[in-house]
User: Which sequence fits this backbone?
């Protein structure tokens, strides 16, 4: 059911209470198909492909480096960060507003946390040359990210031919979950160590938009740690000069 037209709070509340919240609490992840519908979803896809065509996407980066291991062997995507307010991102902005509204309904039902902000949107393309992203955790070190939301944009995707499956390894569970990156599908999962995941090699161009929603308290603590570390590093540099 496309939610983009005539979307009411009741529609979003029903989706949140009947689908997202129960699945997140019991399994740690959930996906919804047909979020925007063909017309609006295609408008988002057109804007993302134009960003790719015009060279706005750059190689994805890692937070740190591993000696002797190339970055491209760990993640092979090309990305750009957008707020949705940029020219040419009108449909993307519509998508982000809808996800914001949906998560705001979920937030108070997901335990003791306060979700009041999110990241910019990461536009990502795996260029179809076997690129993927090895198993990792989005938030292994309490940086504030609590929910990962990924919107997929890939029409006529055949996972047997094209690969590109996102595989989740739910913590403490005897199974894995394979999520196909199908057009107009929204995936939501916990960003912390409960959900290690990987993007398997893609053999066709694969597009997605990801946003992370922050727990305000954990985010504030992470910013304080970074500020303290920066100050400490600066003092050490001054004393050694």
Assistant:
């Amino acid at each position: 059911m496309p939610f983009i037209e005539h979307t009411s709070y009741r529609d979003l509340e029903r989706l949140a209470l009947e689908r997202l919240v129960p699945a997140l609490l019991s399994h740690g992840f959930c996906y919804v198909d047909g979020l925007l519908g063909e017309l609006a979803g295609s408008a988002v896809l057109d804007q993302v492909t134009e960003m790719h065509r015009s060279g706005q996407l750059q190689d994805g980066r890692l937070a740190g480096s591993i000696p002797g291991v190339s970055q491209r062997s760990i993640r092979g995507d090309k990305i750009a960060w957008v707020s949705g307010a940029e020219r040419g991102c009108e449909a993307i902005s519509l998508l982000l507003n809808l996800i914001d509204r949906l998560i705001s309904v979920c937030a108070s039902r997901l335990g003791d946390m306060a979700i009041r902000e999110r990241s910019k949107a990461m536009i990502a393309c795996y260029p179809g040359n076997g690129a993927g992203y090895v198993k990792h955790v989005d938030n292994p070190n309490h940086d504030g990210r609590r929910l990962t939301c990924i919107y997929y944009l890939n029409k006529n995707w055949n996972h047997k031919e094209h690969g590109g499956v996102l595989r989740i390894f739910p913590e403490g569970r005897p199974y894995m979950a394979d999520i196909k990156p199908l057009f107009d599908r929204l995936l939501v999962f916990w960003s912390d160590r409960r959900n290690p995941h990987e993007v398997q090699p893609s053999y066709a161009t694969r597009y997605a938009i990801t946003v992370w929603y922050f727990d305000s308290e954990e985010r504030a603590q992470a910013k304080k740690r970074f500020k303290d570390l920066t100050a400490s590093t600066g003092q050490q540099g001054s004393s050694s000069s």
Summary: The radius of gyration is 19 Å. DSSP finds six helices and twelve strands in the chain. The first strand starts at residue 29 and ends at 33. The longest helix spans residues 216-240.
